[in-house]
Amino acid sequence: MIKNIKGTKDLFPEVTCDIQDIEQHLNRFMHIHGYGEIRTPIFESTELFLRSVGEHTDIVNKEMYTWIDQNNHSLTLRPEMTASVVRAYIQKQLWKTEPISKFYYIGPSFRRERPQKGRLRQFHQFGIEALGSPYAEQDAEIISMAYNIYKMFGIENLTIKINSLGSDDVREKFSLELKKTLLKFKSIFNEAELIRLDKNPLRLLDSKNEKIQNILEKNAPNIFDYISKEDEKHFNHLTKILDSMNIPYIHDQKLVRGLDYYNRTVFEVISTDLGAQDALCGGGRYDNLIEQLGGDKMPAMGFAAGMERLMIAMKLNHEKTNYTDIYIINLEEQLIEHSMKLSDDIRKDLGVAVYTDLLRRSLKSQMRHANKMNAKFVIILDSETMKNKTVMIKNMDTKEQESISFNKIISYFESE
Ligand code: HAM
């Protein structure tokens, strides 16, 4: 038997119903905040991710699904969407016509991580990117939107962690300092950790190795201590706006995030309901990325969130599947075609959900199915009553039954 690939999921209607619901809320939320949807391809040139996410990050080093196509072109399933949005923005040279571009997206991303609860190989992200503003107000808008999305879905126990990575050369200075500190303890590092220490010491900050975490706790410098006066002003302005918007946050001076393109503000929203994979979403400012990828120097800020993690935090029990408003029961096979026609008429006139049994089942099993589908009404087609052009309609809440003539069926439901 051929099975799905580890870390991917088949989503059946009981789950997709909930996802559609979430997406509708998100679409509306984004619309009222002035963000329009962007859809980019799910695969891109590998080079895009090397040059944005960063060559020495975990994502690029070991988690990308990459292949060489028939034209010898290296392609990659997107591990995240910011790079694609920036590529599309540059390709369209949008900064020439729009001082600010605000986009949101919802869709699958791919990372070859070890699957566990809240961590998949094909997962789904929604997120937003605002390209064009260098100001702290933009950071505040994005962080508050992330927070309000989780509030909209009724999620409690949220923590927003924010930090500043400063600009330009701060990461470099800090990396050097961190490397210097950690080199003193290099005897406890394994081979992979030593390579990280050499190539991208920042990645050791979220190492799973407890010994390294202990060393970091006691000895590591804070990136925040390296930022400039201007960076600090930006950060203080941001926290002032968040305070005035009543958005709670903690300043985590150790937060750096796992992608290379960030500068200044970074943030994550964490939920205690998620266990080990506790990040609901993460994001930050990337003021150099557009220029790095060939556009003009344009500042930008955004975040992305895991749909699966949102659903875990929402504690959904996926029970809304297969619901209908009206269930038409056929007592005899030859009535099925009438009920198909009647279903279509009701759907067209009233726009409600109508279900007709096409399995030629018994009255009893059709009734059982109507109950399972939570039908509000059942229409019974029976050749005896059809002779006088009437049908029986049962209100499943009140259990009352009424005989209704054919031409009154629509008006019966209109009045209900
Ligand atoms: P990220 O932190 O790599 O950032 O991913 C964002 C969110 O995607 C995570 O917080 C998590 O909820 C979800 N996620 C990531 N990997 C997985 C996985 N394997 N399984 C399930 N969920 C996952 C980014 O992707 C940046 N592009 C965010 C950003 C947008 N920064 C600026 N703009």
Can you describe this structure?
There is one protein chain. With 416 residues, this protein is an alpha+beta fold. It has helices spanning 13-32, 46-52, 58-63, 82-91, 136-152, 170-183, 191-199, 210-219, 229-244, 289-292, 307-314, 336-350, 363-372, 383-387, 409-415; strands spanning 36-37, 43-45, 66-68, 74-77, 101-110, 122-131, 158-164, 250-251, 263-271, 279-285, 300-306, 326-330, 354-356, 377-381, 390-395, 401-405. Strands 1-5-6-11-10-9-7-8 form an 8-stranded mixed sheet, sandwiched between helices. The protein has a 5-stranded mixed sheet with strand order 13-12-14-15-16, sandwiched between helices. The protein has a 3-stranded antiparallel sheet with strand order 2-4-3. A hairpin with a 5-residue loop joins strand 3 (66-68) and strand 4 (74-77). Helix 5 (136-152) packs parallel to helix 9 (229-244). The radius of gyration is 28 Å and the shape is elongated. The two termini are 50 Å apart. The model has no long low-confidence stretch (mean pLDDT 94). The structure holds histidyl-adenosine monophosphate. Residues 80, 82, 111, 113, 118-120, 123, 125, 127, 129, 258-259, 279-284, 302-306, 308-309 line the site of histidyl-adenosine monophosphate (HAM). Residues 80, 82, 111, 113, 118-120, 123, 125, 127, 129, 258-259, 279-284, 302-306, 308-309 line the site of histidyl-adenosine monophosphate.
